[in-house]
Design a protein that fits this description.
The protein is of the alpha/beta class and 390 residues long. The protein has two domains: 175 residues, Rossmann fold (3-Layer(aba) Sandwich), CATH 3.40.50; 172 residues, 3-Layer(aba) Sandwich (Rossmann fold). It contains 16 helices and twelve strands. The strands form two sheets. It has a six-stranded parallel β-sheet, sandwiched between helices. The protein has a six-stranded parallel β-sheet with strand order 9-8-7-10-11-12, with helices on both faces. Strand 1, helix 1 and strand 2 form a beta-alpha-beta unit. The protein is globular, with a radius of gyration of 21 Å.
Amino acid sequence: MPEQNFQNLMPEPLNSPPRIFILAGEASGDKIGADLIAGLNQVTKINLSGVGGKDMQKQGLNSLFPITDLSVMGIVDVAARLPLLLWRVRQTINFIIKTNPQIVVLIDSQVFSNLVAKGLRKKGRKSPILLYVGPTVWVYKPQRAEKIKPLYDEVLAILPFEPAAMKSLNGPKCSYVGHPAVKTPTNKTSPSNSNTLVLMPGSRDGELRRHLPMFGKTAEQLIHSNPELDFVIITLPHLEKKIVSATANWSVPVKIVTGSDQRKKYLNKACLAICVSGTVTIELAMAQVPMVVTYVMDTAQNTVNKSLQVKRFSLPNLILEQDLVPELLMERPQTDLLTKEVKNLLENPQNLREQFDGFSQVLEKMQSGTHQFPRQNPVEVILSHIKPEK
């Protein structure tokens, strides 16, 4: 499928390199930030500052502080690190006020980003603040859309249905810009027939604590009926030691890989993935890897979930508005249930094929957007907010 032609939003030429502050608070945001910086550098020289991980640093960012300070999720995890997070909020605000970048781009990390944006507005910042990856107002707390309207000049959405949802909820201006994973879809003609089963247990401390033991027990159960399976955990370099330690007592051999080349290699050969819900499900769909998606909630998340009526939570299913991939939202780890869903796919090639075929529809929607909100180039959207300085 040809790459989507973006609407041309390029502003008038800039007289000097624009000063851009970009912050990413977690691994998925770091990848988005790196892709954004690379795209900006192709168009114009930039004066870059911000916060990011190894991917953004490879693109020239000198991070204000380690991205790992912000990689938390869930009220329990946030509460445990609240003093550090609040200190980083103040540090970020003070740095931006002092250096006065022409535009601030905050990538995901919703709580941290909102605190930074709110603090900047209170200090009188009028220059543009953009949020790249919007809050999931279409899942819960829809009132958040209107509450963040004064904070952001525009939200750059990575899911095609989000701009319409943000508009209906009276949120900030919102454009659909897609996800970097959409740029490099594979060209497989059928599901892989290898014995490689990929495990993707998340990137945050809380996610790893809640999911890794269950993934290990699931692997133990699967190996009894499928002794030929090879298990591979795909993770991030800074998590490698932690995961090696956590899996040391597993009775099933597991290979742990990091880095983009190894990640691509094993996603290309994987017959199936067991993953924690998140943007990784889009990456798997683009790699055409059938999956079982799960999420074990912490206590606070479970309390919120009970007040909601969420029909679907994995991104492929939300994009297609249908049940393409199996979803398991859990109050506590349930190994038997997860094993059952994985076996159902492994033992029924037709189910794998249905997922595989459905991914082409996900790709089409991710590449094009909707009629009302076609996909745009995030570089052009961002630069359109920067006015030449006299």
